[in-house]
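Continuing from the previous page of notes. For each protein in this section, the sequence appears first, followed by its structure tokens. Read the first protein now.
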Amino acid sequence: MTISKGCAFLMDMGTGKTITTIAVAGTLFENGSISRMLVVSPKSIVTVWEQEFEKFAAYPYTAAVLDGDSGKKADTIRHMNGSGLQVVIVNYESCWRLESEIVRWEPELIVCDESSKIKNPQAKCSKALHRLGRLSRFNLILTGTPITNSPLDFFSQYKFLDESIFDGSFYSFRGKYAILGGFQNHQIVGYKHLNELVEKAHSIAYRIRIEEAVELPEFVEEIRPVKLERKAQQIYDGIDKDSFAELMGGEVLARNVLTRLLRLSQVTGGFIRDDTNEIVEAVSRAKLEALEDILDSCMDEDKKLVVFARFIPEIDAISAMLRKKGIGYALIKGDVTDRAEQVERFQTDPDTRVFIGQLQTTGMGLTLTAASVCVYYSLDFSFANYEQSRARIRRIGQTKRGIYIHLVCKDTIDETVMAALKKKANVASLLVDDYKQLIGG
């Protein structure tokens, strides 16, 4: 019996790919099989891995997220030290640029999260991971959907995993499983031997669909940490300090505190307004990039999703992204009058994949059960609004298991608001007595 060096965790969003991987890594570490682990993920998920290790790793480890410029990232790899399993977490774009440093570091386990990012065998990152995958002792890919366009999407991901499963040549692989025709016989017009392809792919795969994960709650909760860009964090910190100084120097009124909290929340959503409240300046794309990664996964898994956001500039940015990607969406915000039509289109039209709702105007009375994923891009300070919005998706008529995802900027008011809402507290009612915990704390 031949044992593969690779394994594919073909697990839907919300079924525990990360915790399963952390458990596998711990087992390999404790039996002496590995001491260094490389995790490659989309940019918006690198901090998720750091958080999940803190939460679930019941064994000694030292984790480093590669951040900063290329020199700083390379220096972090070169100086990795500490006890336990050494874990380096890097995004796909940086991975191929740091290939030589990674080779010298010699990871024994390499994990590709959302591995459809390397489905193109000609991409620079894919080629780099093919080379790295040959050098490591064990490899894992994590994805709910290894196939997004055609069965040939398996090739590049499995070449990284274990190129003995399929021929190492894409042209040989294509010749075996694709039917060519069209102009000069170079176009794929069909597929063949798919039973064999599926059998080989699943020989090293573990598959979970969220509908089959009966041990999970009907809706899974996820808080996805988002890191503001350096400049955006500096802007946030400046407003935070100014707000605290101003409140300490004058009479503390709930109205004043709310105004300051509003400005801080606007920054985490990516926008600030000038003193006249007219001109909007974009200061961050961190949440938008995180949402795009979630969106891509949902489109690959053929899921509809609802996005709740608080501020109009956020909604406009989300809408612009969807138009650029050619994804149909419905929208309700303050000035939208055909609300019933927007809901009906989302519920019944298969090409309307996303519903965008302004939190304050979409919280009550709507049925959005076509969605199985709900993303909170931003939140206000009302527990009632939060609970009402959650009930739009999980209500009578919902037949799917699903997930609530909260985008929460690290070291910002987002964390405080999320914690308060989880305790079923109304943030607004805590303002006067506890404003020091919310501003400048």
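Done with the first. The second protein uses the same format. Note its length before scrolling.
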Amino acid sequence: MVAVKTFPMGGVHPPENKLTADSPIQVLDPPDEVSILLGQHIGAPAEPVVQKGDKVKVGTLIGEGKAFISANVHSTVSGTVKRVDEALDAAGFRKPAVVIAVEGDEWEDDIDRSPDLVTEITATPEEIIDRIKAAGIVGMGGAAFPTNVKYMVPEGKQVDTLVINGVECEPYLTADHRLMLEHTDEILVGIEVLRKALRVDRAVVGIELNKPDAIEAMTQGAERFPNIEVYGLKVQYPQGAEKQLIKAILDREVPGGKLPLDVGCVVNNVGTALAAYHEIQKNRPLIDRVVTVTGTSLSNRGNFLIRIGTPFARAIEAAGGMTDDVAKVIAGGPMMGKAVPDLSVPVTKGTSGILLLTKAEAEQRETVPCIRCSKCVEVCPVGLEPYLLEKLARVEYWEQSDEHDVLDCIECGSCTYICPSNRPLLDYIKVSKVKVHEMRRASTS
């Protein structure tokens, strides 16, 4: 019997629209060409270690993350490097990338491609962390923070619990749901891998109650792992945010400006646990991920295992193709995702979903004056005053924005979602956060 928990402050419950929850994972064949971004993670971009004309296999290192916060990048296909150039990212900026012409599907010889489950973990904690770094593993929930850095616990910090995020509270997205159903055992071994790396005796998994089959599968599987507990969580967005998840499961409050480490936790997504399993037990770096490709207009919407670097256009084609009434394509979900400028944008390690919205679904309602209803304050999960932060941003009062804790905003979009006046609250808050960061850096330089 799993306990039911949630976070106590704010949150909303948008329509779930989990249209692909019953859609098994389909393997998408590699395209003719991939564009693999060298900076598809938080931190410094990887530096290219290949050049035009080089032959690569699946799993060949093509970019080395040399900075402390960075991540290695591997070829996700076999073929010839066409160029080391630039490609559009989901935000519409041109970023360094390696473009590879696909020729066959030859993998590096030391990658174990067998389906056999490997449960015995022989690597030491230090080896696990080093290999996670070598494999280029990052947070698969969307943030794409280099995973190895989380496990390098600073001196003086004490960690006692590994928190695994299986919430997937964003509407439409079902990739993590399907992973927990179809790769239960691998995820659980991956959790044990991460737990060993962290040197803790306890791992907890949070899953929202709208995934009862996943809760059942993970709970039954965890019976073989005495150090793993599974918790059912109330369906409440943004339950999957780190601070809200920690509060829901462990009743620990992460203070503003602090990290999960400060309350004895490290948080990782179930997809990250699976990637850790693949590397430590199968010697397979991060070269693909499951992406939910969805929308009411798609005839074959579903969950697809896609090689990183595959263009969005290829994934959309596999899901049924574009129709005339599609007005917007979003990388991610409708609450926190970004509208992409071009369908040549490649899938990255952090691409959890590709969402197509019709003209009717994407229509923007007219913005009218604030009616001071305080709904945005009521739903803010971190206790901010979004209406005030928007006003401060409009008049460029960055110091006052800082004083009102704008940097604590987790950009969940609950305020914009609930606002009856259709104010672009989050848009202004995002601008304010950038300006406050710039102001702080200038004051310390």
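What the second structure shows: The chain has a mean pLDDT of 96. The radius of gyration is 21 Å. We return to this in next week's lecture.
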